[in-house]
Write a structure and sequence with these properties.
With 226 residues, the chain is an alpha/beta fold. The protein contains 10 helices and 5 strands; from the N terminus they run βαβαβαβαβαααααα. The chain has a 5-stranded parallel beta sheet with strand order 2-1-3-4-5, with helices on both faces. Helix 4 (103-112) links the parallel strand 4 (93-98) and strand 5. The two termini are 25 Å apart.
């Protein structure tokens, strides 16, 4: 895996077209579009929601997709989009984009099919390196995150979310936003009983006995924020 910008020169590859950026914040979208243009890309497609992102990916089959993990009102649904993209195109080159620095979430993005992970607050030159690295077919993680992910299995007690499934992480993020069981079921298009069962499973894994305590854990996890 590649480390932070400045440690080595970015891969040199020829001109390309067809990059998709999926993010529901217009200002952020414009900013990353400019950085992708600076990386020498001529044709850039944009999507501001999950459905449009998948449809655009299905239509154009871009060489590289930059996908935000968190969408307003949908928790960590970017993970689901990444999985669907990889299911449609197993060789898809996807760069996950997020503010989350919890190694559990980083690892889950890679397991879902992302080839790289970029932080939204990283310097522009570091993002361009991340993009170029994934564009060249290589994996990219910021050095500190790569170390945390590698050590994750060695210190499971320090990672309270490590045993959570992707669906459970999505539900926990929505609980943090104040959504009810019904609201979560509607947002994720799953059954009410599925949400109830997932919350019960999360309580068991965390050793808490009530929904209020589970919500307290969600609030305490700053890395679940968008």
């Amino acid at each position: 895996m590649r480390a932070d910008a400045g440690r080595s020169a970015p891969p040199q590859v020829g001109p390309m077209t067809g990059v998709l950026i999926v993010d529901d914040h217009p200002v952020v979208l414009r900013g990353f579009r400019c950085m992708v243009e600076d990386a020498g890309v001529e044709m850039i497609f944009e999507a501001t929601d999950l459905v449009a992102g998948y449809r655009t990916f299905h239509r154009i089959r871009p060489q590289v997709s930059v996908v935000d993990l968190t969408f307003r009102g949908s928790g960590l649904s970017g993970l689901t989009l990444i999985r669907r993209m990889r299911a449609l195109e197993p060789k898809a080159r996807i760069l996950a984009l997020s503010m989350h620095q919890d190694p559990v979430i980083v690892a889950r993005a890679l397991q879902s099919g992302a080839m790289g992970y970029a932080l939204k607050d990283m310097p522009a030159d570091a993002f361009v390196e991340a993009f170029r690295t994934v564009r060249a077919g290589q994996c990219y993680l910021p050095h500190a995150l790569a170390t945390d992910v590698a050590l994750l299995s060695a210190r499971p007690r320090e990672a309270p979310l490590a045993e959570f499934s992707t669906r459970e992480l999505q539900i926990l993020a929505l609980l943090r936003e104040g959504k009810t069981y019904e609201g979560i079921a509607d947002t994720l298009a799953i059954g009410y009983r599925t949400v109830v069962g997932a919350c019960a499973a999360m309580r068991r894994k965390l050793g808490v006995s009530s929904l209020a305590e589970l919500i307290g854990v969600a609030i305490a996890q700053d890395d679940l924020r968008s």
